[in-house]
TrEMBL record:
It comes from the Bacteria. Mg(2+) binds at E162, D191. Its EC number is 3.6.1.66. It comes from Streptococcus sobrinus. This is dITP/XTP pyrophosphatase. Substrate binds at T129, R130, N131, E132, G133, K134, S192, F275, G276, Y277, D278, K298, H303, R304. It catalyses: ITP + H2O = IMP + diphosphate + H(+); dITP + H2O = dIMP + diphosphate + H(+); XTP + H2O = XMP + diphosphate + H(+). Its cofactor is Mg(2+). Homodimer. InterPro entries: dITP/XTP_pyrophosphatase, ITPase-like_fam, RdgB/HAM1.
Amino acid sequence: MTDKIYEYKDDQDWFVGKWSDFPNIYNLGLERDFFQIEHELAGLNSGEQGFDVSVLRYSSDFRLMAFIIEMINDAMGRQLEIKQHKGAILISEGQQLRLVHLPEQGLPLSDFFAGEGQASLGDKILIATRNEGKTKEFRQMFKKLGLAVENLNDYPDLPEVEETGTTFEENARLKAETIAELTGQMVLADDSGLKVDALGGLPGVWSARFSGPNESDDQNNAKLLHELAMVFEEKDRSAQFHTTLVVAAPQRESLVVEADWPGYIGFEAKGDNGFGYDPLFLVGETGRTAAQLTAEEKNAQSHRGLAVKKLMEVFPAWQQEQS
């Protein structure tokens, strides 16, 4: 029997687990009974070992069950998978459905089976982008929540949504809420840009088309340097990269998270990584531009990385409230 200690902790959930002789989920001061989960997951483990889990913070059954499934997979070499479907939680292994966990009030049969075949079983989120690189990042993120990820390439007949808003949130809402109504799916959209203090927040929502509707990154960077040509002190060239993420679903209140990445605009482009204004954006007080960071360094601190982290903290509670 392994002596390994497992832990998962964020703003919404905190679980600590180990292996023992009997399965136990300890409720540390929470008004929640976990006997059903304890009993169901004990059956998956075939009596080989007992998981011993202390729950210090709790937001959803899914998060807790996913933690225990990871323990079982790690210790037993299993390949159990967990996903959400119509308010239920499904656990499978290979081609076998091993467990269906239902909320205490149950689910209407018509909702659970509504037009679903085996291939489409499971909840999905549609990312409002055709960028496969961005989709890959979101797919890794939402896999932890048991959600399959699609993008606009899976819906070639959808019209393009014009970004006519004057704020990042308006544009992100336009994309997410319009596509959610057209498809009936849960949709995530983002709008990002650069805000330069000396320019009153420009280019802002016009970041991608700062020098014209069809201009290149190099042309946008050249225009930005031109606009700041008479600003000689680096401290006066402060700026922030901004991201707004919006998750929408039909007849639901949308979820909105935002994040900023502070820095300064340099006097010349440096670095070969990244895109957009990255070669001009000096990260904090480091003296390095965003284009001089590795992908891992950038994702750990960027506006999009911070926004995604915030989203993962609040998304499970939002999904549970809206279902």
